[in-house]
Specification:
Shape: elongated
Largest sheet: 30 strands, antiparallel
Helix content: 10-25%
Strand content: 35-45%
Number of strands: 54
Distance between the termini: 81 Å
Radius of gyration: 46 Å
Length: 1281
């Protein structure tokens, strides 16, 4: 729609051009200069002078060549990445510009004042957001620029200019001006003719009309414009151009002056004897050989030097040197010394043999063999001549291969149909590529001088199976390696598949008969019920959240062998701890895991200080525990047992833990982890001087079995699962000494300011100095291990789950090794990353690295067809990148110097062929500043690098440069660090798993109004409160080698050291333990009403509080002075009566606005039926809640089936990742009559974990049991006085 895009366009140039046959063979020259006179009044005078004196006095405005409106770029769809700042101009000064036909070279480019975008901005971004991405390049220098074109793009001219200036104006124009000497143009070679029409050969080498290998094509040459020079030997001219634009129109003022000499004769000669541009498609071969003749014509010598020429389907033996007389060259009478053989008479290529006596490196061709009938001569009796061609073996063999290729093309089905032509008779002949023409044959013979050796590349033929078989045969004959990999590849190709993966070993009930699933449902209460009930008791009877919200630990432990235990710890302080962890491969199939400590008999130690210990346990169990207490407490056991049952507060004391664990797990025959018998688990836990709490701890441990049993059932399965079973299986491919794994941790912490008294040592400030060291050592022969990993993932040659990025790398490594090419040999890498942090201060990170990655390994990792590999220049070239860059403050970028050498820029075309540019440049003194709002992501960043990439050494990255600067130094602002440390709190609040099934399913998602009310606010996990300071340093080293045996070796060493100060106190324990609530899956509902027997028209008058939860219905007497939830009037487990449905709660309407339901009672036969009455709306909601809970209990069968399917899918995905769910490590929980979760725990499948939901952020959503009770009392009796 724009019509003014030419407004202001101005271009004015003047110059001269011409050629002279006697000067540089008539190549064209030209000179273009800025025009000083827009009207061109004196252009003729300046043309004659060639170097006018007034040039020296021209102003910058006089020298302007172009004035281009930016609107024109918009119309053409050309994006402009730069723009001038407000009130300023953007300028480019270019010095020393030269284009030599193959590369563009610039001595120096100076850029000043340019706006650019740091990132691509979406159209939907606001202006404020967009300003964050806008940067101003205040100055930059680019020097020693060289932009090389592909060799095939070589141009025939040279262009140079002393300088060029480009100015972008805020008014919307680009001005381009040049220096007084202007632009010089020199033609270096004659140009080719224009595009020609016609098809080119594209088929296979063996096809009659297919393309030929370049080495077997007739020589070609450029179709040069020599005719121009011969016809017009001298030309000289001048021109003046002045172009101006207005609206959508261009006005051009042009003046041209030419003086031309003309010759007619060369034009006529050239038109009568033009070289052909057709591609005739016959194999062409030429070389000097020795011709040996026996029984030949009497005029022929027995031996002679000849030029053997294979062309147009004939083998011609010509005199050497060639005869001067053109007619003599075409005389093929054998008696006159030359010979021509028609290749169509051969049944195969001529036989090659060693002459007698043998000569070193000489072979011969028997020309009259393979079906070709020997010529005979003689008037009275006939003699059959023999013809042999002899010469260097490689030359003779190349001639035989050339003849063989021509015979294959003749044997093509189309060849005879075309009478041994090379294209259909009804179609035009194929043509040569544009710009080429066939070379004169005499010149072609001359260029194929003696010593030209050729052996065509053999094309891969046969199936992949045949090629692999031949490769195996060659390897066996050479005796230089094992055929193990090739045997495996042959097996895959012959069978079309690898062994099917084993079936998942899941210990679920069979999915056949529904009755078998129902039989697995137990009659006792589920863990979900016990957990729900214990939490109710914790919140209502023992430790209500209103009173104990600040406690470090407040928890219920349901279903222990001694009953439900409720524990309260007001403060838990870490005083001291030390432990060492070690994981090591000790045999071909076994791993050792050990937890120990540097002191105390190699025991790990944890010293804690505990305050405000309080607990609740069943009364009978407390009595038994008290009788076991010794010392002073034994004397007061009666007081403890009978007088202090409601407050067993043992106050404070040290808690010490000493432990040592050592065990082994190994792969069984099914490649599953099993723990070896005899695992050692020594754990000694002591509290204070012993007493009731100590006895409780010992009793609970004994009730669960000893510590060995506890760790065997819980801890060891988790430890074994750290290493995927597929990794363990892969390592069995190599013996233990060839596949070593050692992982070790040393962790210790100590209170920063401990205090001691007679009771023990504590840490009141809760600040802990922590040190952690982690070392991972791997020494292995990687290829067999990678083969096994790939084989486990793949079947039938393709991965069953698709080739992931890691699988692609493994496959490249295996394939490279199978081709007997090195992968890891001579590779080495070393990197160090360090960081330092102080609370409230910026975070500083430094990184440095040294690496030498051979090209084979680099290509294996990124793919040999990747852009990175294409960027590497051919030998002996190399890509260098060295220099530095700095990001200063929040909005300033400085690049002191960066040098790139021989950067290869690949370019792939639509037809599949590719070319590449090559770039050299130095960027220096660059300075940019962000415009608008500051960029807060990085406070400062500096980088200093020195890298080389070539095809001999691969990637070589040097460490610190001579100035001692690291590869990377980055400082992150304190605000960003605070946000980063606060982010895990938000993620941690979200549960790993939520219920998703329909609400009526036993494990379904409940409506919000029927969920368990939140009893407390979450404790925020803000790591900013816990991390006071820290320093970390990590290093990695990798070394590849080539052992004298079959496989390469790879050694890896990873070390991580972290030390700092942490706040380990009550706030942390609350944040970790109580961030979200478990979703027990029971319907919860509560309301007030009246309960009792309905007598006539009189309704019950006893105020009660009804609560539905944990699968039970409970009715409590409601009085103002009652202890909450203490007076239980009726308790019903709905799972026991679920089969009766809602009918068991029969409605009974009595008065308007009030409704009643009967409450089931197993003693109703001997007593009157009791009812619960409340407002109609309350009864309606109560019936909905009861109906939903009964539906969930009655949907057990469907829930079990759905859980089994989900478990199988989760196990399948885990196995694809290398983890097999098998054995007794993670058993399926038993389904009980009131279960709400049926999934088997799979550590690798979060959807199998017990569901939860996040605690609310709004305090108004919190409703503890005590709060609900008080609200009910106020509703019935009114607010308290």
């Amino acid at each position: 729609g724009k019509t003014d895009y030419f407004n202001g366009l101005q271009a004015k140039m003047e110059g001269s051009l011409g050629w002279n046959q006697d000067v540089r063979n008539g190549l064209v020259w030209a000179n273009l200069q800025p025009s000083a006179d827009r009207n061109g009044a004196d252009w003729q005078a300046r043309l004659e002078q060639q170097a006018p004196a007034e040039q020296a006095t021209r102003t910058a405005d006089d020298l302007q060549v172009f004035n281009i409106p930016l609107a024109l770029f918009e119309v053409l769809g050309i994006p402009c990445p730069l723009s001038p700042p407000s009130g300023n101009v953007t300028s480019f000064d270019v010095k020393g510009l030269l284009f030599d036909g193959l590369s563009l070279q610039i001595s120096k480019i100076t850029l000043q004042h340019a706006l650019t975008w740091l990132n691509v901005t979406n159209a939907s971004d606001s202006a404020a957001d967009a300003s964050n991405e806008l940067w101003e390049i205040q100055s930059a220098e680019v020097a020693d620029v060289s932009f090389g074109l592909p060799q095939s793009w070589k141009q025939d001219f040279r262009l140079s200019a002393g300088g060029l200036r480009l100015v972008m104006l805020p008014t919307g124009y680009i001005g381009i001006s040049g220096t007084p000497e202007g632009f010089d143009f020199q033609q270096e070679e004659f140009v080719s003719t224009g595009e020609r029409e016609g098809a080119q050969r594209t088929g296979n080498y063996n096809d009659a009309d297919g393309r030929l290998p370049p080495e077997l094509m007739r020589e070609t040459e450029r179709a040069e414009d020599i005719l121009r020079v011969k016809t017009f030997p001298v030309m000289k001219g001048g021109l003046f151009v002045d172009i101006s634009g207005s609206q959508s129109r261009l006005v051009a003022d042009m003046k041209v002056d030419l003086r031309v000499d003309v010759e007619i004769k060369p034009l006529l000669v050239s038109s009568l004897a033009a070289q052909p541009v057709q591609d005739f498609g016959y194999v062409f071969w030429s070389h000097e050989l020795e011709r040996r003749v026996t029984h030949g014509e009497t005029s022929l010598p027995g031996q002679m030097q000849v030029t053997a020429v294979l062309s147009c389907g004939y083998l011609r033996l010509l005199e050497s040197p060639l005869a001067e007389d053109p007619l003599s060259r075409i005389n093929m009478n054998p008696a006159d010394g030359q010979l021509q053989l028609d290749l169509t008479k051969y049944t195969a290529a001529p036989k090659m043999f060693t002459p007698e006596p043998p000569q070193d490196g000489v072979q011969c061709l028997d020309l009259y063999s393979s079906g070709y009938e020997a010529r005979s001569h003689g008037r009275w009796w006939s003699q059959h001549a023999t013809e042999h061609l002899c010469g260097p073996a490689v030359v003779v063999e190349s001639l035989r291969d050339a003849i063989d290729l021509q015979l294959k093309r003749f044997r093509d089905a189309q060849a005879k149909k075309w009478e041994f032509g090379t294209h259909p008779a009804d179609k035009p002949q194929y043509i040569l590529p544009t710009g080429l023409q066939s070379m004169d044959l005499v010149e072609a013979y001359r260029r194929r001088r003696p010593g030209w050796l050729f052996k065509p590349k053999a094309q891969a033929s046969g199936s992949l199976l045949e090629r692999v078989s031949k490769q195996k045969e060659r390897l066996q004959q050479s005796g230089q390696g094992s055929t193990h990999l090739l045997d495996e590849r042959l097996r895959l190709l012959e069978t079309g598949k690898v062994s099917e993966p084993k079936n998942l070993t899941m210990d679920f009930a069979a999915n056949t008969e529904d009755s078998s699933l129902l039989q697995t449902i137990g009659t006792t209460h589920s863990h979900a019920y016990r957990m729900c009930r214990a939490r109710d008791d914790l919140d209502t009877l023992y430790f209500p959240p209103e009173q104990f919200e600040e406690a470090a630990i407040r928890m219920a432990i349901p279903g222990t062998p001694i009953g439900d235990v409720h524990v309260l710890i007001d403060k838990l302080q870490v005083v001291d701890f030390k432990l060492d962890v070690r994981l090591e491969r000790i045999s071909d199939t076994a791993f050792l895991f050990e937890i120990s400590g540097p002191e105390h008999g190699r025991q790990a130690m944890f010293d804690l200080w505990v305050e405000g210990v309080d607990f609740r346990a069943p009364k009978t169990m407390l009595r038994q525990l008290a009788y076991g207490v010794s010392g002073f407490e034994n004397a007061v056991k009666t007081a403890f047992t009978f007088g202090l049952l409601k407050k067993n507060n043992l106050d404070r004391g040290p808690l010490t833990v000493r432990m040592q664990m050592k065990g082994m797990f190994e792969l069984d025959r099914s490649n599953h982890w099993n723990v070896r018998p005899g695992a050692v688990s020594e754990v000694d836990i002591k509290f204070g001087a012993g007493g009731l709490v100590q006895t409780l701890i010992n009793t609970m441990i004994g009730a669960f079995g000893d510590m060995d049993h506890i760790f065997l059932e819980t801890i060891w399965p988790l430890l074994a699962a750290i290493i995927p079973e597929k990794i363990g299986k892969a390592f069995t491919r190599v013996p233990e000494e060839k596949g070593q794994i050692v992982v070790s941790f040393h962790i210790e912490g100590r209170c920063k300011a401990p205090q001691s008294d007679k009771n023990g040592k504590r840490c009141p400030d809760e600040e802990i100095d922590v040190l952690m060291k982690n070392i991972v050592e791997l020494g292995m022969t990687p290829v067999p291990i990678f083969e096994d990993l790939l084989a486990q993932d793949c079947a039938q040659g393709d991965c069953s789950n698709g080739l992931e990025s890691w699988d692609f790398i493994l496959k490249r490594i295996v394939d490279t090794a199978a081709a007997n090419k090195p992968v890891f040999d001579k590779s080495s890498t070393g990197a160090v990353v360090s960081g330092s942090y102080v609370q409230g201060m910026p975070l500083e990170i430094q990184a440095n690295a040294e690496a030498e990655i051979p090209l084979n390994l680099l290509g294996t990792i990124v793919g040999n067809d990747s852009v990175l590999i294409d960027m590497i220049p051919v030998m002996p070239g190399k890509l260098l990148a060295f220099g530095s860059a700095d990001l200063l403050g929040k909005k300033k970028l400085q690049v002191p110097k960066v040098r790139l050498e021989r950067l290869r820029l690949p370019l792939v075309f639509g037809d599949g062929h590719s070319e590449a540019f090559e770039l050299n440049m130095t960027v220096s003194h660059a300075f940019a500043e962000a415009v608008g709002a500051s960029v807060d992501t990085v406070q400062s960043l500096s980088s200093s690098f020195d890298m080389m990439l070539n095809r001999e050494h691969g990637l070589v990255l040097e460490g610190m440069n001579a100035g001692g600067k690291p590869l990377l130094r980055m400082v992150l602002p304190s605000k960003l660090v605070r946000d980063m440390l606060a982010e895990p709190s938000d993620r941690f609040r979200n549960p790993s798993n939520l219920r998703t099934a329909p609400a009526e399913m036993a494990d379904g998602k409940l409506p919000t109004k029927f969920r368990r009310p939140f009893s407390r606010m979450p404790a925020a996990l803000d790591l900013n409160q816990f991390f006071r300071r820290g320093d970390a340093i990590a290093s990695i080293g990798l070394q590849g080698g080539n052992s004298s045996k079959r496989w390469e070796t790879l050694s890896t060493n990873l070390q991580l050291t972290v030390q700092g100060t942490l706040m380990l106190g009550s706030q942390l324990w609350r944040s970790v333990l109580y961030t979200h609530d478990y979703d027990d899956g029971f319907v919860h509902y509560s309301t007030t009403g009246y309960w009792g027997v309905i007598s006539g028209s009189s309704l019950p008058d006893m105020p009660v509080f009804l609560e539905l939860g944990c699968g039970r219905l409970r009715i409590y007497g409601l009085k103002r002075d009652n202890t909450p939830f203490s007076d239980v009037k009726r308790s019903i487990h709905l799972a026991d009566t679920a089969g009766s449905g809602l009918d068991q709660f029969k409605p009974f309407l009595s008065k308007p606005g009030m409704s009643c339901i009967s409450v089931p009672d197993e003693n109703a036969v001997f007593s009157k039926q009791t009812h619960f009455c409340a407002l109609d709306d309350y009864i309606k909601e109560l019936k909905q809640a009861l109906e939903l809970q009964l539906q969930r209990f009655n949907s057990m069968r469907e829930a079990l089936l759905a859980a089994q399917k989900a478990d199988e899918e989760g196990a399948r995905k885990a196995k694809e990742s290398g983890y097999e769910m098998s054995g007794n490590f993670f058993t399926k929980p038993p389904a009980m009559k009131d279960s709400t979760w049926f999934r088997r725990l799979n550590p690798y499948d979060p959807t199998s974990w017990f569901p939860a939901y996040p605690l609310p952020e709004d305090p108004r959503a919190v409703e503890s049991p005590t709060k609900r009770w008080k609200s009910a009392v106020a509703l019935v009796y009114g607010p308290p006085a």
